[in-house]
Amino acid sequence: MADLLPPLGTAQIDGKTKVDEKVDYSNLPCPVPYEELHREAIMSLKADNFEGLRFDFSKGLNQKFSLSHSVMMGPTEVPSQSPDTTIKIPTAHYEFGANYFDPKLMLIGRLMTDGRLNARVKADLTDRLVLKANGQLSNEPHMSHAMFNFDYMGSDYRAQLQLGNSALIGATYIQSVTPRLSLGGEVFWAGVPRKSGIGYAARYDTDKMVATAQVASTGTIAMNYVQKISEKVSLATDFAYNYLSRDVVASVGYDYILRQSRVRGKIDSNGVASALLEERLSMGLNFLLSAELDHKKKDYKFGFGLTVG
Amino acid sequence: MATNKRTGAGKSGGRDSSILAKIANHEIANKGRRAACDAVYVSKKLLRSTGKAAWIVGTSFLILVVPLLIQAERDQMLGEIELQQASILGPPPPGALQ
Q1: Chain A residues touching chain B at CB-CB below 8 Å
Q2: pTM: predicted TM-score of the whole model, two decimal places
Q3: Looking at this predicted complex, what is its ipTM?
Q4: Which of B64, B74, B81, B83 is the best mutation test for A, with the most CBs of A within 10 A?
């Protein structure tokens, strides 16, 4: 049932020379990982707007080892019964983290004051095989989970196997078809809600633009397009439609990367306008301002933060 | 008597005609009043919806465009200062930190 796309004849055009050159179908570039297919669009459109105060401090003890402290204070939303009202509960927590970075091994751990421990491991087992593991332990029962990913990078394809703790198995495969076009598919099976799904994705990128499309049997159809207008400016647009729950959202956003600052803004078809400004006050000191206006629900969120190190 | 009758008749006739005039006036006045009420109602609605739209557009402009303009202007001023410094100090020596 997993009708993944068969490896097609691959083609390559040297980017610099014109179309006169014969396409060499045996030397394609390696495609982008399947979960990062839409990474340019995510950078512009899914900026992490937050509410309240956010303070992050990281200090490197060694060339490979660093610690981080972060404080977050602000209201968090609790899903409420009626869709009109949102219940916000003010919370504040401190998170301690330790990171170890090596070319072959990366370890990240985070511990929060509400008792949650989060750990991530990324290890290069061989030249082509990468293991990623992700685990979360929590005080609340049934909220702990772990996930293991095995990524294999071929010459012009990538394959990934995913195993999760509550009987979750997934596999993704993506292949470069031409130097600009890559196609991929994914399959997953979840044991606890007995569901399985299959999805397909395509990505077309040139120097100036990236277009991706994804279809999944869980009901989502997502398409996005990012155009790089200059070195500093890029515009992105995104369309998501869920044919099972009949939800549709379209959004348009911009991303300006200037020398001392980065401004990202987005407006939505749900009537949400949001913006995130990161400014570099001095070496290693970044100042963040975030704003989100939801005109339909009349919910306004503003946040500010500081990142040191 | 005849004159009285005539004047009486004239007076009542006059009163009749003035009453009729009053009635006619009343209808037109009613129509006019209704039209004025409708005009006020429509203009109030228009003003309210224009106000709402202006609020939404104004606050979204404040969030989306104003920080961008401020940052772009600061970047431009920084570029000018660098240009001035480069012209004053001359080209940097080969081993300098940029």
Answers
A1: 254, 256, 258-261, 263, 265, 267, 271, 273-275, 277, 279, 289, 291, 293, 295
A2: 0.77
A3: 0.77
A4: B64
